[in-house]
Every structure is written in structure tokens, then in C-alpha cells.
Amino acid sequence: MNINCLQIQSRRAFVLSAAVAFAACSSPSTASDGVQTAGGSRGTTSASSSTDASVPGSGCADGTRDGLLDAVSFPGVAACAGIWTGTVDQAQSLCASGWHVCTGVEAAIGAVAYNDGLAFHGCFAFDAAQDNWVCHPGCNAAVAAGVDTAENIDMAGLGADCPYDLGGGSCIAGGRIDASENSGTGCSYYAGLTGVVCCQ
User: Fold this and answer.
1) Domain locations in the chain as residue ranges
2) Of 81, 94, 89, 155, which is closest to residue 122 (Cα–Cα)?
3) How confident is the model over 52-99, as pLDDT tens digits?
């Protein structure tokens, strides 16, 4: 057999195997929930993915992280969208089971760098005050301790759309992001907030 014949047979075998593989990948199959999908998969991502915002253990009650998306880099802290009534410590319903609204003392919140805290849209509050460049765990506790008034306490936050982002001391590393600062809203929800920061 000459070389040209071998090349043609080789190409035919490749085309044939490619066609079989394509047919197997594009034929519909039924996922476990009864939904027909192409290629036999529903398109879900495994829980080990570091960038999938809706993996189990996302930290948010709705199952979707809205900030700090990388669950590998931020395993114990997540920004979760939603509204609540009252002060930030009453926003627990936005956090997943086993998670809570972060206070200023948790290692997970302290490990968030200033640049990471500004790397996503929205403004997500957490339960701490940052008046006088000091992290005061518990926004209401800071008011009770006389740090500032209930209306003007500087509630901590994360997100590029928070009204105040400054350098200096705070609950996160390398800078300060406030969800409110001498605004008259203090530790309470207001229309400009996107949600809260939840910790495990």
C-alpha cells in the first residue's frame, strides 16, 4: 500500500470517529430531573468549582453569591443580595443555614482585602461600625458603647457602590469601606443597600 492510501484511510478513520463522537455529544438525553439536554448533561458545575456563584455552601439564602464569588478564596464569607427591615443584625434571613451576618471580629471578614472588597458591584453591609478608623464589632453595640449616635454610626460594608471607600483602619485589610457614614440611617437598611455580608 502506498503512502497516499494510508493518509486517505487515516483521514477517513478520523472523520468517522469524529462523526460518532459528535453524534454522541449532540444527541438529547434526559437529566435526572426529567429535562432533556444536549450532550447528556444539564450544564451544572461541580461544587468544587471556585468561580461558580451558585455552588452549595454559597453562604446566601437564595444559593447565589453576589460578591466575593470565588468560594475557594473566600470560603467563609459571601456578599448576599436582598432587603430586610430594621438594623443590619436583623438581616439573618439573607444568609444560608449555618451562616450569619458578619460582625467585625471574624477572621473571614478580616481576611478580605480592600481591593477585593471593591471588586464587585453593589453595597453590602455587615454588622460592625468603623468610626474613628477602628473596627467596632456589632453596629448596635458600638452605638450602645457611645461610639456615635444611632443615626450617624459608620456601618461597615463591602462593594464598589458603597458611598464611602477610604484608606485607613477598619474591619477589613488595607482600607475602609462604609455602607453608611453620618448619613442618618446608622445601622439600618436603606434603599441604596444591595444586601449583607454573611459569614460561616
Assistant:
1) 3-38, 77-199
2) 81
3) 444 447 999 999 999 999 999 999 999 999 999 999 999 999 999 999
Q: What is the pTM of this model?
A: 0.72
Cell matching residue 43: 450544564
What secondary structure does DSSP assign to the chain, as a single string? --HHHHHHHHHHHHHHHHHHHHHHHHSEEE-TTS-EEETT------TT-SS-TTSTT-SBTTS--SBS--TTTSTTEEEEE---SSBGGG-GGGBPTT-EE-BTT-HHHHT-BHHHHTSSSS-EEEEEE-GGG--EESHHHHHHTTSS-TTT--EEEESTTSSEEESS-SSSBSSEEES-SSSS-TTB--TT--EEEEE-
Best CA proximity match to 189, nearest among 62, 74, 93: 93
Residue-wise pLDDT tens digits, 130-162: 999 999 999 999 999 999 999 999 999 999 999
Which amino acid type is present at position 183?
S
- Whether the Cβ atoms of residue 58 and residue 65 lie closer than 8 Å to each other: yes
